[in-house]
Amino acid sequence: MDGILTGGVYALMAAGLTLIFGVMEIINIAQGILVVLGAYLSYVLQVHLGIDPFIGLFFTIPIMFLLGVGIEWVFIRRLRPQNRTALSILVTFAVAIVIEGLLTLFFSADLRTLNAWYIDESVHVFGFYLPYIYLFGFGLAVVLLGALYLFLYRTRTGFSIRASVQNRTGAELIGIDINRVSAITFGIGVGVTAAGGMVFGATNSFNPNSGYDLISRLLVIVVLGGLGSVGGALIAAVAAIVIEDVTAVVWSPVWASTMFFGVLILVLLIRPNGLFGQQAARAQ
């Protein structure tokens, strides 16, 4: 049960990463440190202004959205289309290093945690003691991923984003402003990390170095689910975390992380494009 709830939170963090790749073919290595940045923003609001972490999302999500739009406009838009994907790894890694440095400068390397009544309390359900924070975090993931689905499939901007995912050149030919779509997509991808970061900060101690472990896990999830597939990221996150938790309980915690990456290798041997990847979807 913990694996399912935690998987939902990881899906929320991975959704932005896979959406950005699907539309822009950008591998955002900075996604891990952006999740940590979201945790620090919630920490600042709670410690200095006394704002509950969930209420604080009304401030942190717009802030992170604008940060994403700014990163896209300043760094990503300048990349040449010919080697855009390869260069994006270097550029976003540089962005991650800068953010990590700033966080270390302002907060030091000391571990921080978020505090609220629901973080340490549990509820007894069907023989299981489930922490409130995991239940609330899973509920938040369902709401935000549902809102993201409605945005992509029920709004004009969402249609433009999906058209860009299917064929970037074709989308330009029918009049879609690719630069605008890319900025909005990057903003959404970074904005949702504010929610993921808040839940991550509520369930883990964190410091500026926490982003490295996160980005490795998020990359495994989006590759496992199929690059560009938000639904695939959701299923892959739940499956990978459940398998990791079951391995820790049934076998040994030592092999839990190994099994997490082993699942990726096994799936890629059978389906090289991931569970829901579509090889022809990015044909230009």
What's the SSE blueprint?
Layout: H1 2-24, H2 31-49, H3 53-74, H4 84-107, H5 117-120, E1 122-125, E2 128-131, H6 132-154, H7 156-166, H8 168-173, H9 178-203, H10 211-225, H11 230-250, H12 256-270
Helix pairs in contact: 1-6, 1-9, 1-10, 1-11, 2-3, 2-4, 2-9, 2-10, 3-9, 6-7, 6-9, 7-9, 10-11, 10-12, 11-12
Describe this structure in words.
With 284 residues, this protein is mainly α. It is 74% helix and 3% strand. The protein is built from 12 helices and 2 strands. The chain has a two-stranded antiparallel sheet. Helix 6 packs antiparallel against helix 9, helix 10 (211-225) crosses helix 11 (230-250) and helix 10 (211-225) runs parallel beside helix 12 (256-270). The radius of gyration is 18 Å and the shape is globular. It starts with a helix and ends in a 14-residue tail after the last helix. The model is unreliable at 280-284 (pLDDT under 50).
Q: Give average pLDDT, whole number.
A: 83
The shape is: globular
Question: Helical residue percent?
Answer: over 70%
How many helices in DSSP terms? 12
- The helix-strand sequence is HHHHHEEHHHHHHH
Radius of gyration: 18 Å
Instruction: State the secondary-structure class.
Output: mainly alpha
Span from first to last CA? 42 Å
Quaternary organisation of the protein chains:
single chain
Widest sheet: strand ordering:
1-2
Percentage of residues in strands: under 5%
Low-confidence stretches: 280-284
Number of strands: 2
Characterize the main sheet.
2 strands, antiparallel
